[in-house]
């Protein structure tokens, strides 16, 4: 599971934490104010650190799978956090703020020696441009961008390298199936899953097939699933078909 490190514990951060926890991120919140960084305010977080931002970031270290969302209460803190994050490894860095604020932070970091190439990797202003105004709407745009980046990186960048289970990947699609080629779901030996190949009855059946494949490691490595029957029951024109490839991961 990837770490989502929220620099700042304000209103937008709270909304992002709620959504990100449902999206299977390991949520970590940093803030130097006790009233904003506490377990009562962020019960969904895996970790809440109440300490100066730079100390907290140093204590956490960095990983290539880390996602950082920077939304502190001021330009100076944003700049400090961003400079620290860019020194280490990460999968995603986003910073909230107006174009004017973002330009000012970029300029200050360039003057401090950070390359334009590095700064161009920062998503700022953060989130997909959906016109959000409220903290919840802004959080939707941020989390959508996190999901987009995670999907782009694929399962190899998401799954822990030694997590056992069966990787189910869509390798063919026809019709109006909800997910396309490349969509994946990892089925753990206990039946829990990460990712999705579309949900519903077909995903449930694929999960059962994956568990059977895990236990026996025999049979076809690819299976076709017809979504049209379920679609017809719901009054839909066409549900499409998908072919799923099963890959066992044993460590």
Brief summary:
By secondary structure, the protein is an alpha/beta fold. It is built from eight helices and ten strands.
Can you offer a commentary on this structure?
With 251 residues, the protein is an alpha/beta fold. The chain is 36% helix and 22% strand. The protein contains eight helices and ten strands. A five-stranded parallel β-sheet has the order 3-2-1-4-5, with helices on both faces. Strands 8-7-6-10-9 form a five-stranded antiparallel β-sheet. Strand 1 (3-7), helix 1 and strand 2 form a beta-alpha-beta unit. Helix 1 crosses helix 6 (135-153), helix 2 runs parallel beside helix 3 (75-86) and helix 3 crosses helix 4. It starts with a strand and ends with a strand. Mean pLDDT is 89; it is low at 231-238.
Task: Explain the layout of strands and helices.
Blueprint: E1 3-7, H1 11-22, E2 26-31, E3 47-50, H2 53-60, E4 67-70, H3 75-86, E5 92-95, H4 99-111, H5 116-119, H6 135-153, E6 165-174, E7 184-187, E8 193-195, H7 200-216, E9 222-226, H8 228-233, E10 241-249
Parallel strand pairs: 1-2, 1-4, 2-3, 4-5
Antiparallel strand pairs: 6-7, 6-10, 7-8, 9-10
Helix pairs in contact: 1-6, 2-3, 3-4
């Amino acid at each position: 599971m990837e770490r989502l490190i929220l620099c700042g514990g304000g209103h937008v951060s709270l909304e992002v934490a709620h959504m990100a926890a449902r999206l299977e991120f390991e949520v970590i919140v940093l803030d130097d104010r006790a009233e904003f960084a506490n377990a009562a305010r962020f019960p969904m977080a895996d970790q809440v650190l109440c300490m100066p931002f730079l100390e907290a970031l140093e204590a956490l270290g960095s990983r290539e799978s880390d996602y950082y969302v920077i939304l502190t209460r001021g330009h100076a803190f944003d700049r400090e956090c961003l400079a620290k994050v860019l020194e280490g490894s990460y999968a995603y860095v986003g910073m909230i703020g107006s174009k004017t604020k973002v330009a000012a932070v970029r300029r200050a970091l360039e003057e401090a020696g950070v390359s334009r190439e590095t700064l161009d990797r920062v998503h700022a202003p953060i989130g997909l441009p959906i016109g959000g105004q409220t903290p919840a709407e802004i959080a939707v745009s941020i989390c959508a961008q996190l999901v987009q980046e995670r999907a782009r990186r694929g399962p190899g960048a998401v799954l822990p390298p030694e997590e056992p289970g069966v990787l189910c990947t869509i390798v063919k699609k026809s019709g109006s199936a909800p997910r396309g080629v490349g969509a994946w779901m990892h089925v753990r030996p206990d039946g829990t899953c990460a990712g999705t190949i579309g949900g519903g009855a077909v995903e449930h059946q694929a999960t059962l097939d994956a568990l059977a494949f895990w236990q026996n490691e025999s049979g076809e490595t690819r299976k076709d699933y017809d979504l049209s029957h379920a679609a017809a029951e719901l009054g839909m024109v066409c549900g499409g078909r998908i072919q799923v490839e099963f890959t066992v991961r044993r460590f």
